[in-house]
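Deliverable D5.2: sample structural annotation.
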Amino acid sequence: MENLDLRYAFILLFGVFIAAVAQVLLKKSAMRHYSSTIKEYLNPFVIGGYIIFIGSTIMSILAYRGIPLSMGPMLEATSYIYVTIFGVTIFHEKMNLQKYIALVFIVCGIAIYSLGVA
């Protein structure tokens, strides 16, 4: 990890973040009722969500040019944190003890890997 270029790590983290935003758009679209199947799939939320997913994929490809392959899953695990925050703030989902414990394990895993303990 000594030769790690942090720019690539931030590219991957930003890609993961915008993928979480795309998930929010798709869920917002799924929560609406549409008069036809075509409107269900061809609306701004769905189209925007998939365009963002394409951008996220491109960012992941670019990021792997400068970060080790073993670091990718650790950075991508931050998506659970983003999705939880969005779920609680945007969709008013309820958190329970199991979800909090799971988030603590995820954050601890990221911290342990980042510190080079593992």
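Annotation notes: The mean pLDDT is 92. The chain has six helices and no strands.
The annotation will be released with the project's public dataset once the embargo ends.
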